[in-house]
Amino acid sequence: MANKLMLLIFVVGFALCVESKYMVYNTSAKIVPDKLNVHLVPHSHDDVGWLKTVDQYYVGSNNSIQGACVQNVLDSLIPALLADENRKFIYVEQAFFQRWWRDQSPATQKIVRQLVDAGQLEFINGGWCMHDEAATHYIDMIDQTTLGHRYIKEQFNVTPRIGWQIDPFGHSAVQAYLLGAELGFDSFFFGRIDYQDRAKRKAEKALEVVWQGSKSLGSSAQIFAGAFPENYEPPSGFYFEVNDDSDIVQDDMNLFDYNVQDRVNDFVAAAFSQANITRTNHVMWTMGTDFKYQYARTWFRNMDKLIHYVNEDGRVNALYSTPSIYTEAKYASKESWPLKTDDYFPYADRINAYWTGYFTSRPAIKHYVRILSGYYLAARQLESYKLQMSIGVKMENNGIFKYGCKTRASIVYYYLEPDKDMLTGLQELSTDSHVHISLRKPSLALIPSTRRCNAVFMDTEETGGSKGPDTGIGNKETASVGENGEGSIESDPESESDCEEDRFSSANEYCGDEQLVNNMFDDSGLNSNREMLLQMEIRLTSSSS
Description:
Blueprint (H helix, E strand, L loop, with lengths): L1 H16 L19 E6 L11 H6 L10 H13 L6 E3 L2 H8 L4 H12 L3 E3 L14 H19 L5 E4 L7 H9 L5 E4 L4 H10 L3 E5 L9 E6 L1 E4 L27 H16 L6 E6 L8 H18 L3 E4 L2 H10 L6 E2 L22 H29 L35 E2 L7 E2 L7 E2 L30 E5 L5 E5 L15 H4 L3 H7 L9 H5 L1 H4 L6
Parallel strand pairs: 1-9, 1-10, 2-3, 4-5, 5-7, 6-11
Antiparallel strand pairs: 6-7, 12-13, 14-15, 15-16
Helix pairs in contact: 9-10
């Protein structure tokens, strides 16, 4: 009895001696100009099909092959980001995200949109998947990227800014130009280059370059591009998934294995090692790899501690970041970069381990993909023809402004044929906002032409209106659709005398987006691209907007 009493007293006394504390970690670090800045970029590389099917990867089934569940990644990510406004995460593969997004409640979707708006969650690359850059046809590359980007724009009203091709086996200059610079990306990052090329670039501090994907197009085809020092994973010893074997940051002195100073020293050493092969005082750590963050809190807990204690140490500056923030820092440094003009092919990840055979293997499935791609393209062209016949936009002489004085109509005033299946509404123009394509149920009648888009119409002093693209022409005219489906344009005859044939200027001279207008019309002057027409809502603006 006495022994039990002594044991109870000991346990109670020990419990009273252990002070309860709640540790708040300072994760608010920003860029410090005169220090080495280590940009921690949390990410998960989720292969859209590898050892399992896409659906198996998403729901986490068939784990006897590989333990991976992307649904867990996204489920655990959102509360982890909400726990600290300084935490950030980038996500790439829309094949998985769109599966997850459609299952979320309106309340969860609202929260995710807030995280995107705040810059905590950023979509980069933005395609359905991370396509191959050699065996894939460029049309398929464009299509799958468009599929993802359109969805992101519709749901979040943002456009990805960064290319992130971290796992394709070698990299093509076409990717850098067509799906980098031409796409409007600010930078392009990748992981797999030849091991000998990587070693040479490390020695020359040339992992990051200005990549000019087209020699003939010059600087317009250039993009800032960077290869990672060691693929797309964190430095050795900084893996924090629940089943990884890296040492966590153990900062409770009342428990065994306290290791804060050791972990800080490891961090600083790895940071300076990477700085020795990188230009400027900014290095990026890709904090993640294949199918990580299935329990996101373990990663963020350890990164919180690293940022807090490393910055207390003061030798380097650690911060949560994204490739967008990192790219802006590189631009601001005014550094000179090597120029790259060719491919990153062939690719070998080590001696006698070339991936060139990858592009010639499995010819049957590649054959089927190419055939189906052709069918898909043909189907889209038929759809475009169907739209052309339905919307009935008609031009003459391949000139959008060649109708002369009698019609006095800008592009959207041409004839419409009603089609219940495709367009049930009207087109609206407004000089103080974007051009809108409305799909509403009122009658198919175009609004008066005093509302115009400056991208397709220019008025002049000679025509009776004020000079400038945002004014009317001083007369009235309307366009409507008759019962027989034919359009008509009525013009106020009182103003006919003021009209001159040449008052319509060419599209190329005044259009705010020349490529858009040029592509909207084929050689016959007919609308041949549904997507170009619908993009008017986003890309054509009046001069007053």
